[in-house]
């Protein structure tokens, strides 16, 4: 049993416990659960797959505000799915095992297990396709607003006022893409699950 699955069983919070503990972004998370639309294709795919999800997060994280509600909505519909939460700052020893290619530890981390607790894979921060589209939208915003001081610079080198406008635009734009981004997340989780499912089918055929 991996450390992640031990924490899933012994320490992690349920959906209700996590929401009740939130001091910030609770209402936005609840709205996103209500407002997110999941495609019928994804409802059908996850309907009969026994999976468990562990999310390592902090409630201030905008990626968590956007993507956690997708899993909450899905899991609440199916008894074969389970979702639990750990706060990153209370479990840094575990979180340190999930670093990105740049070497830092992003949140959220969404870890996917099968019914027996075997770790199938994980999503770091947000789906890859969502990151691609966010970068494209930031470039579009920069080109559409050449009058903003320092708008052509990397965001960490922009003047504070320009940086704030870029970040606020990104926040509002990404929330307007909730349903498409939900699809990106569920597609990425499917890509994690499918190899294990194919291997299972091969063993059964043998």
Overview of this protein structure:
- This protein has a 4-stranded mixed beta sheet, with helices on both faces.
- The chain has a single domain (3-205), classed as Glutaredoxin, CATH 3.40.30.10.
- It has helices at residues 3-10, 15-21, 26-35, 40-46, 62-75, 92-95, 128-144, 160-176, 178-205; strands at 51-57, 81-87, 109-114, 119-124.
- The chain starts with a helix and ends with a helix.
- It is globular and about 55 Å long.
- β3 and β4 form a beta hairpin.
- With 206 residues, it is of the alpha+beta class.
- It is built from 9 helices and 4 strands.
Are there runs of 5+ residues with pLDDT below 50, and where? none
Average pLDDT taken over every residue: 93
β-strand percent reads 5-15%
Order of helices and strands: HHHHEHEHEEHHH
CATH class, please? Alpha Beta
| Major sheet size, sense and barrel closure | 4 strands, mixed
CATH 2nd-level architecture = 3-Layer(aba) Sandwich
Number of domains: 1
**Assembly state of the chains shown:** single chain
Widest sheet: strand ordering: 2-1-3-4
- Spatial shape: globular
What are the salient characteristics of this protein?
alpha+beta, Glutaredoxin, 4-stranded mixed β-sheet, 9 helices
In short:
This protein is α+β, with helices and mostly antiparallel strands and 206 residues long. It is 54% helix and 13% strand. Strands 2-1-3-4 form a four-stranded mixed sheet, sandwiched between helices.
């Amino acid at each position: 049993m991996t450390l992640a699955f031990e924490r899933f069983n012994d320490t992690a919070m349920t959906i209700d416990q996590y929401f009740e503990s939130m001091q910030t972004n609770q209402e936005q998370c609840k709205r996103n659960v209500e407002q997110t639309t999941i495609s019928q294709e994804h409802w059908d795919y996850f309907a009969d797959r026994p999976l468990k999800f562990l999310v390592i997060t902090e409630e201030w994280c905008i990626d968590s505000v956007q993507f956690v509600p997708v899993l909450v909505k899905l899991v609440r519909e199916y008894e074969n799915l389970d979702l639990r939460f750990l706060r990153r700052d209370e479990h840094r020893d575990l979180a340190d095992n999930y670093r990105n290619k740049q070497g830092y530890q992003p949140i959220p981390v969404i870890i996917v297990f099968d019914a027996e607790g075997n770790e199938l894979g994980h999503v770091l921060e947000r789906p890859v396709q969502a990151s691609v589209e966010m970068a494209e939208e930031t470039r579009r915003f920069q080109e559409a607003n050449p009058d903003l001081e320092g708008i052509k610079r990397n965001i960490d080198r922009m003047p504070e006022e320009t940086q704030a406008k870029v970040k606020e635009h990104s926040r509002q734009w990404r929330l307007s893409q909730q349903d498409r981004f939900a699809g990106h997340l569920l597609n990425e989780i499917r890509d994690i699950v499918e190899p294990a499912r194919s291997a299972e089918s091969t063993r059964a055929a043998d």
